[in-house]
Specification:
CATH superfamily of one domain: Cytochrome c-like domain
Number of strands: 3
Distance between the termini: 62 Å
CATH class of one domain: Mainly Alpha
Strand content: 5-15%
Number of helices: 7
Order of helices and strands: HEEEHHHHHH
CATH architecture of one domain: Orthogonal Bundle
Radius of gyration: 21 Å
Strand order of the largest sheet: 1-2-3
């Protein structure tokens, strides 16, 4: 019996030492492949274990079919959006870093404005039917975006606020 305990402790010790060994973490440079097609820009970003598709023509599933930004950012709308974002979104989204959900910085380099609005307004259906939203659900450990029941006006103000964030 005593030898069995020693053997078991030896195995546990071996696994502990093996998993705690110092490894140099090497971050592989992301390879970006850009494909342009008619009315569609798709970027594929590959890293070691994942592939993310950036389809800027995807408008998502929901009430927003078209959204064109004016050239100038409307500061009063963006300020309202910052307040809504702070009150309803910061539990899961952090400026400048991945958290429970993705960072909003540079979102319009990865998603169309319509897609972002539809994700804010219709997250349940987006996760069910939109392939990009499904992929994000997997990428972010199965944490679905909560429906905050924002109005279109509130969602639009949040999107305007996102325009003010540096990528």
């Amino acid at each position: 019996m005593n030898n069995f305990i020693k053997f078991l402790l030896l195995i546990i010790f071996s696994f502990t030492i093996g998993s705690c060994g110092s490894e140099e973490k090497k971050e592989k440079k992301k390879k970006i492949q850009i494909t342009n097609t008619k009315k569609k820009t798709i970027k594929k970003e590959k890293s070691q274990n994942e592939e993310t598709v950036f389809d800027l023509a995807n408008k998502g599933i929901g009430p927003i079919k078209s959204l064109n930004f004016p050239t100038e950012i409307d500061k009063s709308i963006a300020d309202k959006g910052a307040a809504v974002f702070k009150a309803k979104c910061t539990a899961c989204h952090k400026i400048g870093k991945k958290f429970i959900g993705p960072a909003p910085n540079g979102i319009f380099q990865r998603r169309s404005p319509e897609w972002v609005m539809n994700m804010i307004l219709n997250p349940e259906e987006m996760v069910q039917k939109d392939p990009v939203a499904r992929a994000l659900l997997i990428k972010f450990n199965g944490s679905p975006m909560a429906n905050q029941n924002l109005t279109e006006e509130e969602a639009r103000s949040v999107v305007e606020y996102f325009r003010t964030l540096a990528p």
